[in-house]
Amino acid sequence: xxxxxxxxVATVVSLIAVPGPDMLYVLGRSLASGARAGCFSAAGIxxxxxxxxxxxxxxxxxxLAAFPALFLGLKYIGVAxxxxxxxxxxxxxxxxxxxxxxxxxxxxxxxxxxxxxxLLNPKGLLFYFAxxxxxxxxxxxxxxxxxxxxxxxxxxxxxxxxxxxxxxxSYGARRWTPEPTASRNLSRLAGLxxxxxxxxxxxxEWSGATAAH
Length: 213
Fold this sequence. Notes:
Order of helices and strands: HHHHHHHHH
Radius of gyration: 18 Å
Helix content: over 70%
């Protein structure tokens, strides 16, 4: 196992540990609907990043480089989607779905929303298509192989760490704040932090665009 790869793993773990849209979504979902929903959310996020890995291996970053407006459009769509998730958390009454819908539909809702969160996360798009290739060693093999190894490593780390976070958040909420009102307030706080994170990304985008002009 090369030192370059180990450095990459350490970098990804440090990035995952920094609160961002993915983490805050898993946290909010776990507090609102329990550890199971949090784990399905983490699985959806990991699956979304797996799809980005396949796009990277296929050379989709070349399309984004040729059409900058496409990348910009994806980022704004991501901001809108994450804002919608944040408002759902803020307005949550303790669960995204009612119990009458059944665990199967709740699990699918958590998973599919997680997929959308990672696919449309502006920070995730930037990481996969701009930062991740910088870790590749062209002399050590073809680009697509590096993309699969490094990309799927990122997906696995997201699945593992975010699932652990979801379980810990749900357990802590039940253990130290058993009252439903407290759990709802924590979920709404996570939604508010997610919204702040999204607005910060949007502000950074506008500042960058203004500086470019």
